[in-house]
């Protein structure tokens, strides 16, 4: 198979005007943290420090929650729903207008390829605001009773893998339903949320409706434990989700959790193999595998395992790893040194437990944090790489003989976020999908997202749904 050399095609970073320092966004203005604490955010592809960002402590969180409460009791709470919608439409349009700036900033701060931030993260973030803007004055027809009310002030904590998109998933439905928000971005990727704060100023969103407190786990803990919130929405690891659930047990604060996953991507013997190969690649190597719903366990029917793996290896050898700002890049940098360490440790456990590692020839840049696309065969269900979320570009391959065995193996996990089924037969797809304990099941595709479609987990992948009409329920007193 010919593999072409591509000339570098880097996207210019000039469109992004990085400030040396960023404050907290509270009550419509950027402010200094009470105790002056800051942390650095770093470009994971180069280890260059991008900016110094304010670290919010309990006093700052308290100020942000108070601002959100004033806005809820005041201007936002009294505003006609159709007026609220106009702000969301404006945010969506400005995200489109400033799309390239957001895409470049996201790739700089997160390490993801510009192709993905440009074609997935930013357009989908805008689509969420458009979609929920349309609901703001139609809540009575959403199926949650004749007069659904907003809950009040929502505290929202998000992870680093889709920083802007997760902010959009949280803010758009909450605001459409009439709530006000305090958002806590992840500590390694705060910049796109802070640029979003500038957009909120640009569209004249009333002060206090959205507040953004940056910081690490301590800031998240202070927000969750504040006591003045009507609702907490968390996306992140199952471990932290459990801690949050313990903190809020017995309080009046409502909670939704979007947590980890270990999705099965099931390929039956009648599947179109070339198409399946593309879906497998998209399932686990999209966003360096930092995807909660990644297809990290490939379950392939034994009779087609050999040809499928051969084609998969050929395809992996063509993936380009490197500069996230290069438009030809398929695999960017791992988001942090800590995440690289976790991926490396779990991959090593695969070797130690007897699975067989395969990696294409893939030179890694000297600086930054990188992990090559990796495939493990000979994986058994008891191996850690089959049970634990790796959150990196590592695929564990298992085989099955009968559809029943595929379903049992797919469901043999504490998680239940997503799954994929590849088959030419519609009846087989439906038979399998009905038996999978997963919030989303993709058929002959993978990692497709649409704001109109609900997303969420079973079991330790969390509870509550984001997206679609269902996503409004979490923010309504219905
Ligand atoms: P994480 O749980 O460590 O952090 C997530 C967020 O929570 C960050 O903003 C962090 O600062 C904050 N946080 C950390 N400790 C906290 C605490 N004790 N109290 C309150 N907040 C706290 O997870 P991560 O490493 O940032 O993200 C990766 C995880 O997120 C993976 O497990 C992935 O599957 C999951 N994820 C899930 C979804 C989904 O929709 N289900 C989407 C994206 C990521």
Describe the model:
With 478 residues, the chain is α/β, with parallel strands linked by helices. The chain has 2 domains: 21-258 and 458-477, Aldehyde Dehydrogenase, Chain A, domain 1 (3-Layer(aba) Sandwich), CATH 3.40.605; 264-443, Aldehyde Dehydrogenase, Chain A, domain 2, CATH 3.40.309. It contains 16 helices and 20 strands. Strands 14-15-16-13-12-17-18 form a 7-stranded mixed sheet, sandwiched between helices. A 6-stranded mixed sheet has the order 9-8-7-10-11-19, sandwiched between helices. β10 (231-235), α9 (238-248) and β11 (254-258) form a beta-alpha-beta unit. The model has no long low-confidence stretch (mean pLDDT 97). Bound molecules: nicotinamide-adenine-dinucleotide. Residues 157-161, 184, 186-187, 216-217, 220-221, 224, 235-237, 240, 243-244, 258-261, 292, 389, 391, 417, 457, 462 line the site of nicotinamide-adenine-dinucleotide.
Concise overview:
It contains 16 helices and 20 strands. The chain is α/β, with parallel strands linked by helices and 478 residues long.
